[in-house]
Amino acid sequence: MSFRLPLILSAVLAAWSAAAAAETIKIGVTPGPHAQILEAVKPIAAKQGLEIQLLEFSDYVVPNAALDAGEIQANSFQNQPYLDNQKADRGYKIEAVGLTVNFPIGVYSKKHKAFADIPEGGKVSIPNDPTNGGRVLLLLRDKGVIKLKDGTGFKPTVLDITENPKKLKFIEVDAAQAPRALDDVDAAAINTNYATQAGLDPVKDPILREDPKGPYVNLIAVRTADKDKPWVKVLVDSYHTPEVKEFVLTKFKGAVLPSW
């Protein structure tokens, strides 16, 4: 027993030290795929001494405000054009530290089987934030539905529409409310995470779907002051693993695409 006691004490001390060394961070996510993917990341990060707590936000505005205020340490819900817009408008000191997944946005309808079936003067809802609303207008432009002013970049608005042959009426709604708008419009552009929450299939159900390639890859963001901290690398490396990639491909079957 005389030599076993020191061994036992050493093991206890080692376990205590490991627990003390573990760092805990809070990550803001939107409900649905972003939250589900981070749940798959959690055990991988935990093995590297990083404990993750997820906080779900129901909109696209609060997660950056919470991050900038230090209420959370990271968020995972947005793409680079959206982050750039938020930083320009609100002065946030937030940086992207790693790419995550892409959610090709879709246009859905309960009334029409094809976009061409929408009548003249039909109502189409689009997200009311500049980035997601803009990407829908770019999608409609690319499909030949409308024409936009030259040089509008990634954030065109309805004011940038130069030709609208079908005289479609664009109704701007909060992205989280887009599925509810389906009953009241001819078609609604819905982000993938909100579409899946509403029971829609983002691969089979859209009457128009965005090209999965492009600038709208989602990302992990942290405060600029934190971007070089060791836990950031652990978080990104834990996300960028074969296990997480396989989870995304298996779980979402093409509705969400890995971008690393």
Keywords:
single chain, 260 residues, alpha/beta, D-Maltodextrin-Binding Protein, domain 2, 6-stranded mixed sheet, 5-stranded mixed sheet, 13 strands, 36% helix
Largest sheet: 6 strands, mixed
If you compute it from the alpha carbons, what radius of gyration comes out, rounded to the nearest whole angstrom?
22 Å
Helix count from the secondary structure assignment: 9
User: What would CATH call the homologous superfamily of the largest domain?
Assistant: Periplasmic binding protein-like II
CATH architecture of the largest domain: 3-Layer(aba) Sandwich
Mean pLDDT: 91
Taking the alpha carbons of the first and last residues, their distance comes to 53 Å
Helix content: 25-40%
> Looking at the structure, what is the overall shape?
globular
Q: Which percent range describes the beta-strand content?
A: 15-25%
Order of helices and strands: HEHEHEHEEEHEEEHEHEEHHE
Structural class: alpha/beta
Instruction: Give the number of domains.
Output: 2
Strand order, largest beta sheet: 2-1-3-12-4-13
